[in-house]
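Entry:
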Amino acid sequence: MCTSAIHRVIEQHSARRGDSIALVHGDRSLTYRDLNQRANARARQLIAHGFRRGSLAVVRMEHSLELAVTLLAVLKAGGAYSWLEGDEGGSWPAGVSIVLDEGGDQQRCLAVDIAGDGPMHSAPNLPIVTRVSDVACVLRDQNGMPSILVPHETITALHVQPIPAHTRWGAEPGALDLWLALMAGSTAVLVADAVESAAA
């Protein structure tokens, strides 16, 4: 059983086989090194806006390479994400919002501009200590309220070898299949309504 946080496993793949392709979407791709460094840079952007260990980021983005980078950045910054796609986002602004406090029906958030990651070669891994018991993902109910808290250890416990040749990632809001593909060192191929992973 894996005892590391999700992003630490992906960082290990980046260190050992950084030139391997992690993500493909159409004619674009990111290697494990690219994915890791972009997520490091974006995590620092979040931290600069007050994001910290235990924080929650609401990510309202379509399936894309940028979505994967952003979700990984949230984990690297020590927090958890709640992913909302398209119309299901309701009143949440597009992009990334940091939840400042959350109680009852009232939520205060800070929208974060994540455009432009800066130089990738100067984005080392962050030293933030994330425990496997820390929440990685917050699933929301139909009213947009937090419903299920998913810790790193729940996702990493599903990390087994080998993974299926094709792992779909449709409307599943936790991005769990994406993490399983990346933790296995596979290539996640983003398509219109799913992510398919093929063993590298």
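The first helix runs from residue 6 to 17.
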